[in-house]
Design a protein that fits this description.
The complex is a heterodimer of chains A (409) and B (81).
Chain A (H helix, E strand, L loop, with lengths): L5 E9 L6 H10 L4 E3 L2 H4 L6 E3 L11 H5 L3 H17 L11 E6 L5 H13 L9 H5 L3 H10 L5 E4 L5 H14 L5 E8 L4 H9 L30 E9 H6 L6 E10 L9 H15 L6 E5 L6 H14 L6 E3 L2 H4 L6 H15 L1 E2 L15 E2 L5 E2 L5 E7 L4 E8 L2
Parallel strand pairs in A: 4-5, 4-6, 9-10, 9-14, 10-12
Antiparallel strand pairs in A: 1-7, 1-8, 2-3, 6-7, 8-15, 11-13, 14-15
Chain B lengths: L2 H12 L20 H15 L5 H5 L4 H14 L4
The chains are: A alpha/beta (409), B mainly alpha (81).
Chain lengths: 409, 81
């Protein structure tokens, strides 16, 4: 028997590009943007203009009473996890659920619940706050709700490392399975922080793109000379990760294997990215997967469309892939930046490349910045022979760098 | 609509119980309503009726009918009944 491997047997998505994997993939293939002007009741006095929102209806997944008692981030988590579990055809009723766990990631957890309670207390001077505020707002609520709903009693962890949170959740879930602590893990991440208070904080960083005057849907332009910053989004993605023999025994469809996980810290600056930290994370992931750079056919870049971030990432990719011109795109131009949910959602983009050879584009990339010289998948999706492996980068405030590598089944 | 009916309607929505299947005399435990869920529900009932149920009164509430009695007496005390 060979070494343990971690199979990907189910994927679920709640995103600004649609609330199931099929619609998400179709929008990516068509290069359709989920970014648009945010409503006034969300932006208020923040000055933020655009965002990528999820068109979400809790029904039929959640009854009215249930939805009213769950923060939006938990609703997204439940939506994506239910899809992933259904797609995996894992029979939880028959499974030993003490061997199935949850590994989740989120940046701000129940940000809307926090925001509304603060609005009530500080804004209106009303100190009567709803009793569920704590359990709706706490950072681990989304992952815990997934565990409770499906009775998953195995290992549980919640990672909060800003933009790398859910990539880390996937990587750590892989480690948990490789260590023999679980047969399967529901792993992913969610974010729902489009609230006036949170938007004001982000706007203060002067890192958000204003609305593109001609077409607000094209406001986020990674790697382009005209890029003006990131666009915040919301949503969730979940995966069922499963020990290979466990998956094979039940005849599960295996979409690919999660084989590499790099995790490094810049330990240099809270927001300015560091090339060396990113290089080390990519190399770590490749080494763990036992792959050479030339084996990787596609990278879903972190590519947030900030002035400095895109240049540093391009340099880091070129340092690792020197001589093998790997295809690269940042799909944040279409679905926005999901922050804690970004790593998981973008891993779902990378899986589309791995399984079908469909490379989702860096939409609106018309004037590539010479400082970001990469083998871009620009403007339109492309179809290639499915590559042997794909990579997904997530680089976060706080200096956290997480890189995931997946290989063909 | 009388007080108990209003409370039952709120409870049916909060706890996803089919209309008419809620026994106001049944213990909260037997209805599957845990203490945190009940405190959240009571908060909504207080909002609905504009009354407050004290922590002392809360200890004695074991059924929805108990809750209705406290709400009704609070309404009477406030001259709203």
């Amino acid at each position: 028997m060979g070494a343990r491997r971690v199979a990907i047997t189910g994927i679920g998505v709640v995103s600004p590009l649609g609330n199931n994997l099929q619609n998400f993939h179709r929008a990516l293939a068509e290069g359709r943007s989920g970014i648009g002007r945010l409503p006034e009741d969300v932006t208020r006095g923040s000055g933020v203009q655009v965002g990528a929102t999820v068109q979400w209806s809790p029904a039929p997944l959640l009854k009215d009473g249930e939805a009213a008692n769950l923060d939006r981030v938990s609703q997204f988590a439940l939506g994506s996890a239910a899809q992933a579990l259904a797609a995996s055809r894992l029979d939880l009723a028959a499974a030993d659920r003490s061997r199935v766990g949850v590994s989740w990631g989120t940046g701000m957890g129940g940000a809307i619940s926090v925001d509304s309670s603060y609005q009530q207390v500080y804004g209106k001077g009303e100190w009567r706050v709803r009793p569920l505020t704590v359990v709706m707002a706490m950072n681990n609520a989304a992952g815990s709700n997934v565990a409770v709903r499906h009775g998953l009693r195995g290992p549980f962890a919640n990672y909060s490392t800003a933009c790398s949170s859910s990539a880390m959740a996937l990587g750590e879930a892989m480690r948990t399975i490789l260590a023999g602590r679980a047969d399967a893990m529901v792993a992913g991440g969610a974010e729902a922080l489009l609230t006036p208070g949170t938007l004001a904080a982000w706007q203060a960083l002067r890192t958000l793109a204003p609305a593109d005057a001609a077409d607000p849907a094209s406001s986020c332009k990674p790697f382009d000379k005209r890029r003006a910053g990131l666009v915040l989004g919301e949503g969730a993605a979940a995966f069922v990760l499963e020990e290979e023999s466990h998956a094979r025994k039940r005849g599960a469809t295996i979409h690919g294997f999660l084989t590499g996980y790099g995790n490094t810290c810049d330990a240099a600056h809270m927001s300015r990215p560091d090339r060396d930290g990113q290089v080390r994370a990519m190399r770590e992931a490749l080494e763990e997967a036992g792959l050479a750079p030339a084996d990787v056919g596609y990278i879903n870049a972190h590519g947030t469309a900030t002035a400095v971030g895109d240049v540093v990432e391009a340099e880091a990719i070129n340092a690792v892939f020197d001589g093998s011109p790997v295809r690269v795109s940042s799909t944040k131009a279409l679905h926005g930046h999901l922050l804690g949910g970004a790593g998981a959602l973008e891993f779902a983009v990378a899986m589309l490349a791995l399984e079908e050879g469909l490379l989702a584009p860096t939409a609106f990339l018309e004037q590539p910045d010479p400082a970001c010289q990469l083998n871009h998948v620009a403007r339109k999706a492309e179809r290639i022979e499915p590559p042997r492996a794909v990579m997904s980068n997530s680089f976060a405030f706080g200096g956290s760098n997480v890189v995931l590598v997946a290989q063909r089944a | 609509m009388d007080t108990l009916t209003r409370i039952k309607t709120l409870a049916e929505k909060e706890f996803s119980i089919a209309p008419g299947e809620l026994d106001a005399a049944a213990s909260l435990d037997s209805l599957g309503i845990d203490s945190l869920s009940f405190i959240e529900f009571m908060f909504k009932v207080e909002e609905e009726f504009g009354v407050a149920v004290s922590d002392d009164d809360l200890k004695g509430i074991k059924t929805l009918a108990d809750l209705e009695r406290h709400v009704a007496s609070a309404l009477a005390a406030a001259g709203k009944a």
